[in-house]
């Protein structure tokens, strides 16, 4: 039933070598992909699909940088998703565990990401040298930017630039949308701020 998005069943074992991912997906931000993938499941529609995947990416080019040594596993089913990924790249060392539900337009999501180091200049994230280390954890029942509900906790952060080393023990972001009112609170070691009311 390969043409039926709900009934299609598949068991894919893909070995990509010098795959021109950017040309295939018509995205100039993407480049060559080398990796191995296994996908098994039923259905293409995210609302009804049930599938598992395992990916081992030796190299992939994104935004003119070639990432290396990325491994990921994940699953989707009953409108729930789980992803577990690790990166052992010279300029990106860390992992992420994410899960959530996408029954609505904007999914719920829980993220746990210990970051050993991100070097932003080689990755073309920033024009200047920045190195970040820390632990990021987020839990959002609603990711709609106009109706955000959840919290973000960033701990043990170290930010290093050419001229500064900044250490932040804890940074909290708390978002609420109960009783028709919105609030967004930011708390850190050295300042805190809150916005309350009706806003987008």
Residue share in helices? under 10%
Based on CA atoms alone, the radius of gyration comes out at: 20 Å
Give me the number of helical elements. 1
**Overall pLDDT score:** 93
Q: Would you report the number of β strands? A: 12
Helical/strand content category: mainly beta
Query: Globular, elongated, flat, extended or rod-shaped: what is the shape?
Result: globular
Low-confidence stretches: none
Please tell me about this protein's structure.
By secondary structure, the protein is mainly beta. Helices cover 2% and strands 67% of the residues. The chain contains one helix and twelve strands. Strands 1-2-3-4-5-6-7-8-9-10-11-12 form a twelve-stranded antiparallel beta sheet. The longest helix has 5 residues. The protein is globular. The N and C termini lie far apart (44 Å).
Describe this structure in a few short sentences:
With 200 residues, the protein is mainly β. The protein contains one helix and twelve strands. It has one helix spanning 21-25; strands at 9-20, 30-42, 50-62, 65-77, 80-89, 92-101, 108-119, 130-142, 149-161, 165-176, 182-188, 192-197.
């Amino acid at each position: 039933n390969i043409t039926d998005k709900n009934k299609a069943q598949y068991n894919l074992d893909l070995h990509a070598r010098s795959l021109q991912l950017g040309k295939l997906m018509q995205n100039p931000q993407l480049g060559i992909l080398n990796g191995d993938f296994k996908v098994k499941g039923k259905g293409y529609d995210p609302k009804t699909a049930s599938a598992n995947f395992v990916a081992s990416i030796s190299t992939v080019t994104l935004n003119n940088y070639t990432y290396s040594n990325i491994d990921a596993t994940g699953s989707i089913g009953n409108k729930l998703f789980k992803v577990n990924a690790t990166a052992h790249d010279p300029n990106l060392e860390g992992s992420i565990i994410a899960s959530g539900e996408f029954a609505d337009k904007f999914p719920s999501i829980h993220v746990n990401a210990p970051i050993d180091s991100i070097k932003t200049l080689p990755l073309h994230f920033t024009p200047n040298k920045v190195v970040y280390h820390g632990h990021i954890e987020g839990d959002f029942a609603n990711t709609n930017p106009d109706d955000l509900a959840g919290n973000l906790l960033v701990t043990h952060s170290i930010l290093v630039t050419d001229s500064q080393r900044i250490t932040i023990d804890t940074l909290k972001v708390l978002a609420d949308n109960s009783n028709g009112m919105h609030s967004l609170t930011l708390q850190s070691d050295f300042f805190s701020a809150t916005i309350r009311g009706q806003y987008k």
